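Field reference: "sequence" (input) and "structure" (output). Example, DUF2190 domain-containing protein:
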Amino acid sequence: MAALTKDRNTPERTGKDFSFPVKASTRIFAGSIVVLASGNAEPGKTGTGLVVVGRADAHADNRNGAAGEIDVPVRAGVFRFENSASTDLITRSDIGSDAWIVDDQTVAKTDGSASRSKAGRIVDVDDLGVWVQLG
């Protein structure tokens, strides 16, 4: 495509709200970390190569459906998730570092010896959990 030679009406999205097709035989709970694997949404889990797209805005039950039969609404932003434990516990000194996915509601300080995908950037830690920038 050639460079512009006149004004262009470029479409815009908010950059926060999206919808993704749900993987076959999968249920995603509202409020969970959502990842893409092979283009389909699934709940966050321990594994490599997963791409975090945000937090599920609604329950999506595709346990009896084919891949892409339903979509899950997802929002990008900063959300509070459960903190891991022991040596993977995230503290305030980790703010600004990456958080790693343990499951659909838990993040950890490390990549679990290269067994986890990145959740996002840690922006705060409080008594109730870890605030992570997703999407």
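The mean pLDDT is 97.
The first strand starts at residue 17 and ends at 21.
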